[in-house]
TrEMBL record:
<protein>
    <submittedName>
        <fullName>GAF domain-containing sensor histidine kinase</fullName>
    </submittedName>
</protein>
<dbReference type="Pfam" id="PF07730">
    <property type="entry name" value="HisKA_3"/>
</dbReference>
<dbReference type="GO" id="GO:0016020">
    <property type="term" value="C:membrane"/>
</dbReference>
<dbReference type="GO" id="GO:0000155">
    <property type="term" value="F:phosphorelay sensor kinase activity"/>
</dbReference>
<dbReference type="GO" id="GO:0046983">
    <property type="term" value="F:protein dimerization activity"/>
</dbReference>
<dbReference type="InterPro" id="IPR050482">
    <property type="entry name" value="Sensor_HK_TwoCompSys"/>
</dbReference>
<feature type="domain" description="Histidine kinase/HSP90-like ATPase">
    <location>
        <begin position="418"/>
        <end position="510"/>
    </location>
</feature>
<dbReference type="InterPro" id="IPR011712">
    <property type="entry name" value="Sig_transdc_His_kin_sub3_dim/P"/>
</dbReference>
<keyword id="KW-1133">Transmembrane helix</keyword>
<keyword id="KW-0902">Two-component regulatory system</keyword>
<feature type="transmembrane region" description="Helical">
    <location>
        <begin position="63"/>
        <end position="80"/>
    </location>
</feature>
<feature type="domain" description="GAF">
    <location>
        <begin position="170"/>
        <end position="307"/>
    </location>
</feature>
<feature type="transmembrane region" description="Helical">
    <location>
        <begin position="110"/>
        <end position="131"/>
    </location>
</feature>
<dbReference type="Pfam" id="PF13492">
    <property type="entry name" value="GAF_3"/>
</dbReference>
<keyword id="KW-0472">Membrane</keyword>
<dbReference type="InterPro" id="IPR003594">
    <property type="entry name" value="HATPase_dom"/>
</dbReference>
<keyword id="KW-0418">Kinase</keyword>
Length: 513
């Protein structure tokens, strides 16, 4: 707008007095622009702009009025609406006074230009205020929208979960129910329900048959499993989808994708030890069940993922709070005790008391650091369950002076993420109990993972579980609840000749190799 004013002045042939007014307008505009919006200096700069341009318009050239909307609208955008009215009033008064002094109140051209730009400035200010109000309202409405939507969906999910048979959203339980339902309809010698786990592999949620099988779980191979997952269409084959089945037998296999909307959430595999066991009518009967089953399974998997994310976030939050709060304060207390010991070289009794106190603070800090490590420990997407348990056992063993003996056996197949997380927490609780209460010297950690089978065993050579153990039965109850949540079995037995063995077993016994 300043450039436009300058161009109009040059077209009309600018005079010295007009250039002086333009220079003053430049100074006032600079003050209003550089000062923070809404600050008193900025308001004074806009008032100076109005005063300069109206005086210039009434005494020299009304081309200066082109700039009038700038300070007026700028005041609205800065949130000073009362100042806007004051600026418009100031402009009207100065233009009237200047016109009267110059004898131009009878000049229709002057009056028309003044009225025109006063109306345009006022209209521009009103439109800017309306637009600003609309944008702020939209921004206020949109900001909490994800949380409102999340609350609505979680509320609906809770209501649906309460209405489900058994009020469960357990993926494993739903998969077992689906497998039993399908096997009751069509002939099969064995079957399984698989779901995605990330990393281009599937996990076995449930299986049935006379023996456990090494099902095909890779999605980057040429197999019926990969084809059904990619095409979202059922695939019938004369080959088994398990790598451990003898290929020479007459076999019929059927892989049916579980599709919820546009997303494949899982697969159901059925196999029969006879040729041609799954003609189109049988396939149609199975696919008729998969729509509703896929929706139930997707809801269970999503609920499981939300619960896992919420748990992980809460553990990380607690770890941060402990690290930044209590842990740091205890470290400072320890330093203070060290300084006190150094300042009391002759006070033997006080020095001894402080040394005992310092040792206790050191012990508490060690406990806190181990608690932080436990909170932050998670099953890595690529490392697997046994690696996470082994890392925790090594760290705890090194801090407590325990000799740790590891026996790890894990296949490339993975358990569901929620199951791995629960098994890790059970192992952590058992290792912590052995460190804090058993008075052990050795710790044996045995892990065997061959999905859907898993066994984690923690043994120590300590004092065993007595009735008066400081931990009581609380830690054992927590482990039992976690094992029940993943449909596992918790076994706590005395170790010969001394100590305790805590084992959690998931699924049936591992297959012979």
């Amino acid at each position: 707008m300043l450039a436009l004013v300058a161009a109009l002045l040059l077209i009309d042939g600018a005079h010295t007095d007009e250039l002086l007014w333009f220079a003053l307008l430049l100074v006032a505009a600079a003050i209003a622009t550089v000062a923070p919006p809404g600050h008193r200096v900025a308001q004074l700069g806009r008032a100076a702009e109005v005063l300069v341009l109206t005086l210039a318009a009434s005494t020299t050239d009304d081309s200066f009025l082109v700039f009038l909307p700038v300070p007026v609208i700028g005041s609205v955008l800065a949130g000073a609406r009362r100042t806007t009215a004051v600026l418009l009033g100031l402009a009207a008064v100065v233009l009237a006074a200047g016109g009267a002094a110059e004898g131009m109140l009878t000049d229709r051209g002057y009056l028309g230009a003044c009225l025109q730009w006063l109306v345009l400035a006022g209209a521009g200010a009103y439109q800017a205020a309306v637009l600003q109000r609309v944008l702020l309202a939209r921004r206020t409405d949109e900001t909490p929208q994800p949380y409102v939507e999340a609350t609505r969906l979680l509320t609906q999910l809770r209501s649906v979960a309460r209405q489900l048979p058994g009020a469960t959203l357990d993926p494993g339980g739903l998969a077992e129910h689906l497998l039993d339902e399908v096997r009751a309809m069509v002939p099969s010698s064995r079957g399984a329900v698989l779901s995605g786990s990330g990393g281009g592999r599937l996990v076995v949620l449930a299986q049935a048959g006379v023996e456990r099988l090494d099902w095909e779980t890779a999605l980057d191979t040429e197999s019926s499993v990969a084809d059904a997952w990619a095409t979202q269409q059922p695939v019938v084959s004369s080959r088994s989808q398990a790598r451990s089945v003898t290929p020479s037998r007459d076999i019929s296999s059927m892989v049916v994708p579980l599709v919820a909307g546009v997303r494949t959430v899982g697969l159901i595999i059925l196999e029969s030890d006879s040729a041609g066991a799954y003609p189109p009518p049988v396939l149609a009967r199975v696919t008729g069940l998969t729509g509703a089953a896929a929706l139930r399974l997707e809801a269970a998997l999503l609920f499981d993922e939300v619960r896992s994310l919420a748990t992980t976030e809460e553990r990380q939050r607690l770890a941060r709070e402990i690290h930044d709060g209590v842990a740091q304060e205890l470290v400072m207390v320890g330093y203070g005790i060290d300084n006190a010991v150094a300042a009391l070289p002759d006070a033997t009794a006080a020095e001894e008391e402080l040394r005992v106190l310092r040792a206790e603070v050191t012990r508490v800090i060690t406990e806190l650091r181990l608690s932080l490590f436990e909170l932050r420990s998670e099953v890595d997407r690529y490392g697997g369950l046994t690696a996470a348990i082994a890392d925790y056992a090594r760290t705890v063993g090194a801090s407590a002076g325990l000799r740790v003996h590891l026996s790890l056996d894990e296949t490339t197949a993975r358990l569901p993420a929620a199951v791995e997380a629960e098994l890790l927490r059970i192992a952590q609780e058992a290792i912590t109990n052995a460190r804090k209460h058993a008075g052990a010297e050795n710790l044996w950690v045995t892990c065997a993972v061959d999905p859907p089978f898993a066994q984690v065993e923690i043994s120590d050579d300590g004092s065993g579980i007595g009735e008066n153990r400081p931990d009581g039965r609380y830690g054992l109850a927590i482990m039992a609840e976690r094992a029940e949540r993943i449909r596992g079995r918790l076994e706590i037995t005395p170790r010969v000749p001394n100590g305790t063995t805590v084992a959690v077993v998931l699924g049936t016994a591992p297959r012979a190799r």
